[in-house]
Amino acid sequence: MREVIEKAIGALRDRIDGASDRELAVTLLTTIAIVGLLVAFCTYLFPHPEGTDFVLPTILFCIAIVGGIVLWLRWESVGWPVIRLCTLFGAALITAVMISVPDRTAAYLAYYVWLGIFAFYFLRPAWALATAAWIAALYAIPVALDAPAGAIELWINGAATVLGVGMIVLALRTRIDGLVRSLESAAATDDLTGLPNRKFGILLPDADTQEATAVANRLRAAIEEEFADSPLALLASIRVATSSGHETSSEDLLAEADAALYVAKRRGGGHVFAAGWRSTVDEPAREPAGAPAVF
Questions:
Q1: Checking phi first, is residue 204 left (phi over 0); if not, alpha (psi -120 to 50) or beta?
Q2: pLDDT of residue 231
Q3: Residues 6 or more apart from 54 whose CB is under 8 A from it?
Q4: 48 in helix, strand or coil?
């Protein structure tokens, strides 16, 4: 059992790493659906009030689990319209469960909150607010059918909880997006002049890989020599990428340089590495003259 759980967690981690917002939304939505419904099945083991309808929830649970598995397998192609519809369907499913179990209206409110958090984090504010309104309208049905003491207060508190938690999540997401944009701007804009700039970057026109590598090695050696007597030695890892011709874009050139930098860092620092996974310390490959190099 432990191995199965570890493999499941590992698969989820591998999928989340590097996923886009849409792919992450599909992954988390299907995970919530599958895990949440399996937990709901486990609640069948506990005593339920007289008159509980197990047939309808079971059918809906099975449909939702199958749908979740399909979405999990096709996560790369699922679009935002499907994600929004699944969120609305999830709220309807929770409502059906509330109606099927008498006197348990408040017990399943947490599932509404899960959907509210998801909607306000991943969906646009207008859609998130629409989802919260949809949940509030649906929640009124089981509250009215159960008619507990303080029904109106119960409904207001439930709807306010979904909206309040969602607004907090939206504020945090907005804050995070602002910080990310600030970092992106700082990385692409010169602090002094405000002009567009690609920082820790040097362009060497008419230089091939060997010539660019020689410059990079001299720069690396100068940095290490400068800090050789300091309490904390400083090692420099430099990546080199060379254009093979005019068809290579600046974005492709920088992407190749970034990939080479990761290799240089994994080797422990103090390395110069060329794009294409070739060591530039031993035998750097020569590119045609006249092509620009960047590091």
A1: beta
A2: 75
A3: 44, 48, 100
A4: coil
Q: What radius of gyration, in Å, describes the C-alpha atoms of the chain? A: 28
The residue among 155, 100, 159 whose CA lies nearest residue 131 is 159
Cβ pair 275, 260 in contact under 8 A: yes
How far from chain centre, in Å, is Cα 269?
29
Q: Are strands 272-274 and 238-242 parallel, antiparallel or unpaired?
A: parallel
Polymer length of the chain = 295
Question: Going edge to edge, which strands form the sheet with 272-274?
Answer: 203-204, 293-294, 238-242, 272-274, 278-279
- What confidence tens digit (pLDDT) does each residue in 77-110 have? 899 999 999 999 999 988 988 888 887 788 788 8
User: Contacts from 210-217 at CB under 8 Å and sequence distance 24+?
Assistant: 210/284, 210/285, 210/286, 211/293, 212/240, 212/242, 212/293, 212/294, 212/295, 213/240, 213/272, 213/274, 213/280, 213/284, 215/295, 216/240, 216/272, 216/280, 216/295, 217/272, 217/280, 217/281
* Residue 113 in tokens: 């909150």
* Helical spans, DSSP H, in 147-194: 151-188
DSSP structural state of residue 189: B
Q: By the 8 A CB rule, do 150 and 142 touch? A: no
Residue bearing tokens 């990385």: 187
Overall average pLDDT of the 112-119 stretch: 93
Rounded Cα–Cα distance for residues 22 and 28 (Å): 10
Instruction: Write down the pTM of the prediction.
Output: 0.64
Tracing tokens 């400083």 back to the chain, one arrives at 234
Rounded to an integer, what is the distance from CA 294 to the centroid of its chain?
30
Alpha-helical segments (H) within 43-124: 55-73, 80-100, 109-122
